[in-house]
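User: Could you check the structure of this?
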Amino acid sequence: MKHVFKVVVALGLFGALQACQTAEPGSSEATVIAIQEAVEETEEANEQIVSDIPDWCTELPSSDSALFACGIGKSSSLNMARNRATLDAKRQLADSIDSQISSRMDDFLDSIGTGDNEQIRQQSEVVTKNVTIEAQLTGYKQTKSKTQNVGTKFWHYVLVEYPIGQANQALLNKIQQDEILSTQEAADAAMAELEAEIEKKRNAS
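Assistant: Sure, the predicted structure tokens are below.
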């Protein structure tokens, strides 16, 4: 009985192999084979991608004086992969900078005690937006990069860094130049507190 079972299995495998070899292009058998091969290639590629991701991309550096972001770009063109990775990193930094600036502005409004005033709130939103836009344009630097080739595609990874103190300084400058925010009661004390925080982060870098 066992011998018969082995023969049946062997014949089944042989039949499957023959079907793969003789499948006509465009037939359902050929389609199934193509899908199976594509899945296998995708699985192998994904395994390579996951295993080759740099440690500094999966676990970003931690610092009290800087923000970090890892950008990833994929393309059949190496130059395009690099550009996409840089843009990806800059988008992430923009979100982090916006969060940082918004938090500092909230601290400033709490310090002057007029955060519920609609005019003050609107003006603070304008300042926050302008500072964030300016910060996105300059100040970041690339610290690490890596490229891997998977199939016909290039995967590029880039680590960028942005000094927190620089964003906070830009915010302080805008507040000092703003007639509404800078003339509020207790504004001088709030700006002095922000300036002290900037100096602290500058010394830490």
